[in-house]
Amino acid sequence: MKKWQTLKSEVLHENPWYSLRKDDFETDNGKQGHYYYAHIAGAGMIVPVTNEGKLVVVKQYRYLLGEESLEFPGGGVKEGDDCLETMQNELAEEAGLRARNWVEVGRFMPHLGICDETCVVFIARHLKSVPKPPADELDELVVIELTPKEFEDKIVKQEIKDGMTLAAWLLVKNKINNV
User: Fold this and answer.
1) Using alpha carbons only, how large is the chain's radius of gyration in Å?
2) Average pLDDT, the chain
3) Are residues 69 and 59 in contact, defined by beta-carbon separation less than 8 angstroms?
4) How much is the pTM?
5) How many Å apart are CA 51 and CA 58, to the nearest integer?
6) Domains defined along the chain, listed by start
7) What's the burial of 169, exposed, middle or buried (CB within 10 Å: 0-12/13-18/19+)?
8) Cα dist. 48→16, 124, 146 in Å?
9) What's the pLDDT tens digit per position in 15-71?
10) Which one of 18, 20, 111, 157 has the fewest beta carbons within 10 angstroms of its own beta carbon?
11) How many C-beta neighbours within 10 Å does residue 6 have?
């Protein structure tokens, strides 16, 4: 398969989290078209593992879902920012934790077809509690520790539905004892 050639790229809308874009393209056989997508600089997910081997997740309300969601800590990375440094800050903000050991275990694209975002997944170990920075007034997070078995049971019961958390777990679960 040959790459499509971008003829023109236009930003249709921009906000602090993403931009909506339209690209005009041409295929290798001369067919032209338009492609609409969201540009997101990047994201990261952290799988924090306690010294006892438990996974740290956060429970938070998700407006679009209209309910609470269990997720690994993580978040967006702004254009030009370092992903690891951003995730270290996210872990402190969301879970009140710092980690001495960080290992990148993989990357995935959460919304291929509508978004160019890449999510970097880390395992964080040797956790230490730290005071949480002042929270965003909309963030109400509850920190929960689960064994890997409890975590997987919650997936089966559909108590964990967040796609990025599920994808991160697939990248991590066979490496968690080896990293």
Assistant:
1) 18
2) 94
3) yes
4) 0.91
5) 18
6) 5-39 (no CATH), 43-172 (3.90.79.10)
7) buried
8) 27, 5, 11
9) 988 999 999 999 999 999 999 999 999 999 999 999 999 999 999 999 998 999 999
10) 157
11) 11
